[in-house]
Structure formats: structure tokens, C-alpha cells
Design a protein that fits this description.
Distance between the termini: 97 Å
Number of domains: 3
Order of helices and strands: HHEEHHEEHEEEEHEEHEEEE
Strand content: 25-35%
Length: 268
């Protein structure tokens, strides 16, 4: 009897070992099958499409430095800060504390500034404005009190419109702005493919359209964060095909105008 029990026990133990080995071997195979693919994924270079690693809408625009503009003729007739502010913005203002007119150069305010105490421009402010040439950039800072449209309370506030002085008739690309942007996009696509999110910055180039409609004085104002892209954009603007119609003043005389080519991401 004891001999029979011993035989049965031996058989059961043997079966348990076989089953355990079978399950274990299956688990090991599963791990071994996953491991090579995981290592391969780590060793292989990560490939991105242009849309995945770069900005799919790489920004291009050609215009005056600031979107808010004023012609030289309108500037010469300005007598009040209200000649610069939209009517809806000026309406709630009840009292001005100060108004300063500052010339901007190289993207920064300069010390060329005249300040007044109310909305009426001082003689010095008007003199400064009238002496400014085409393509000059201005910062008009107003500190004032306004009535809150919701609470009715009087609050301190300020405004800082940035303005570019433009000719009465601005320079235009003969084939149209859309065609100019298309040329820049198509010929800049390969160079801009390296741009990555988080690294791309708002790049800007200054260039001048002369009285004869030629492109001159191309210079980098702010970098896109990629020198190779900056250099390519300089090249594209310099070699722009086609012609430009030069700007004109109020008398119909040809004048030079400085424009800005913005690229990369939108920003100041």
C-alpha cells in the first residue's frame, strides 16, 4: 500500500514539474518575442514628417512694420491723441494724465521722446511727428482714467499703440502679394523643414523698395532661431523675381519705402 502511494505521489510531482515548466517556457517565449522589437524601436532613428516636427503653417507675411499705420499727410495734420486712437477706444476716456510720443528704432523705443499732459499734442510733439520720415515707427503711450462700462467706476488705464508712417500710396509687388507669398513658401520649403516646435521664433527682415522699384538694404531685424533659415529668407527676398511699383507721396512723387518680411511664427 505504501509502495503504491509512493508511486502515485511521484507521478503527481512529475506532472506538476512538467506543467510548471510548460507555463514558464510560454512566458519566457512571450518576453523574448517582445524584447527584440522594443530594443529595435529604441535603436532605430525616430522619423518625422514635415508636419509632425515642423510648424505646418510656417508663417510668411510682407507688410509695414506695424499693422496700425498713418500717412505722412494725416500725421502732419494731427492735433490730438484722438487722431491716432480708434473712436471706440477713446470714447470711455474721461481724463488724460500724460501722452508721450516716442520714436522706435531697431525694434526698441529710443530716447527721442516728447511728452504732454493731456490729449492735445504739444508744439514739441507736433514738431517731432512732422520731422519723422516715411517708414518711421512710433510708440504713442497714453495714461488716462476711463469709465468702466460695467461697473460705472472710474479706473486708471493706458494704451500703447505702435504705428508705422507710410506713404500715401504704398509700394506694391506687380504680381500681387499672394504671388509673392507663394514664391517665398515654395522656395523656402526645404530650408524650413528643420524648424521644430518650441524652437522656432518670429523672424523679421527689413528691406527697402527704392524710388525705382528695386530691392535694397535687406537686413535681419530678428532671428527665427535658425541661422540657415534666416540666410535663406534673406536670399529669397534679395532675389525676388518680378518688379515692384514704388511708393508715392501725396504729390505723386516716387518715394522709398521700408517694408518688413515676417517669417517663422507670428510675434513682435
Amino acid at each position: 500500500m505504501k509502495k503504491r502511494s509512493l508511486i502515485v505521489s511521484t507521478i503527481l510531482i512529475t506532472l506538476s514539474i512538467v506543467v510548471f515548466s510548460f507555463v514558464g517556457s510560454n512566458q519566457l517565449v512571450t518576453e523574448d518575442e517582445e524584447t527584440p522589437s522594443t530594443l529595435l524601436a529604441l535603436d532605430e532613428p525616430v522619423l518625422y514628417t514635415a508636419n509632425e516636427r515642423a510648424y505646418p503653417d510656417f508663417f510668411y507675411d510682407v507688410d509695414s512694420r506695424y499693422l496700425t499705420t498713418i500717412t505722412k499727410e494725416a500725421l502732419n495734420s494731427a492735433r490730438s491723441i484722438h487722431d491716432f486712437l480708434p473712436q471706440e477706444r477713446a470714447k470711455p476716456i474721461v481724463n488724460y494724465k500724460s501722452v508721450s510720443v516716442t520714436i522706435i528704432k531697431n525694434n526698441k523705443p529710443t530716447d527721442i521722446r516728447e511728452t504732454g499732459k493731456n490729449d492735445v499734442l504739444t508744439v514739441s510733439q507736433m514738431k517731432l511727428l512732422r520731422s519723422a520720415s516715411y517708414s518711421t515707427n512710433l510708440l504713442i503711450r497714453s495714461e488716462y482714467q476711463k469709465k468702466n462700462s460695467i461697473t460705472g467706476k472710474i479706473e486708471d488705464s493706458y494704451s500703447t499703440p505702435h504705428i508705422t508712417i507710410v506713404p500715401e500710396k504704398q509700394a506694391v509687388y506687380v504680381n500681387g502679394k499672394d504671388e509673392l507669398i507663394r514664391y517665398l513658401k515654395e522656395n523656402g520649403r526645404e530650408s524650413t523643414a528643420i524648424a521644430q516646435k518650441g524652437k522656432l521664433q518670429p523672424g523679421k527682415l527689413y528691406f527697402t523698395i527704392t524710388k525705382t522699384g528695386a530691392i535694397s538694404d535687406v537686413e535681419l531685424l530678428t532671428t527665427s532661431g535658425y541661422p540657415s533659415i534666416d540666410n535663406k529668407m534673406i536670399e529669397l527676398i534679395t532675389k525676388t523675381p518680378g518688379k515692384w511699383v514704388p511708393a508715392e507721396n501725396s504729390k505723386g512723387e516716387k518715394v522709398a519705402e521700408k517694408l518688413v518680411f515676417s517669417f517663422g511664427i507670428i510675434g513682435c
